[in-house]
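Posting for a labmate who doesn't have an account.
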Amino acid sequence: FFFFFFFLFFFFIFFLFFYLFYFFFFFFVSFFLYFSFFIFFFFQAEDGIRDAQESRGLGDVYKRQMSQSPAKLLTLVMVLRRQERQILLGMKKRGFGEGKWNGFGGKLEAGESCIECARRELMEESGLDVGVDQLHLRGKLDFIMESDGMINKETGQVSSLLRVHVYSVDGSQVDCGSLCESDEMRPEWFEWDAIPFPDMWPDDPIWFPLLLDGKAFTGHVVFADKSTVVSHEIEEVPGVELSLIHI
């Protein structure tokens, strides 16, 4: 009888210990899992709120810039040799963007369309003469300059919102024998894997991959100054409208 009682008592203690062990084990595991999920979803929601605030802030910058001054319409031409995987860039020798490698382009003259401006600027800055049918519109980008905007030499007015139409030209279909240095640009061919991004506008690495892939794109970039991108939103689009825009 004593041994039987001892066996029951031992069994009861063992069962109680086992029960408490599993109870606390599952309790802490469940607590840990619920807490982990809570932390995960909390930070996900916080990221979503922050992204929404950034988007709303970017929209506020747009509205502020648009209310202060109209957009300055510009063109930019990129000459590409896709088979050789080369791009023609020019070192800006003076004016806006001095000291940076860039494509060829500039502001529209009175009564001039974007594509006519692109053709003229390419010839003036590089010596290359192309037909308007060789210029393909690849992108439309808005650049918001919070400082260091483009200054009009004649009026002294500073343009803080720059709307740029980006064109591409098939360099293999162009007579490059006329390629030459101008007062504004010093042209040079670069391999795609040796593009001098450190000496270019800081937004270029964002949209160049789309350009080199032959894709159309649109978006906007906010600059704190000429060397600092605050925020950006650039995306691929099915196609860009090729209508001529006049000032």
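Reply:
Got it, the structure tokens are right above this. The radius of gyration is 30 Å.
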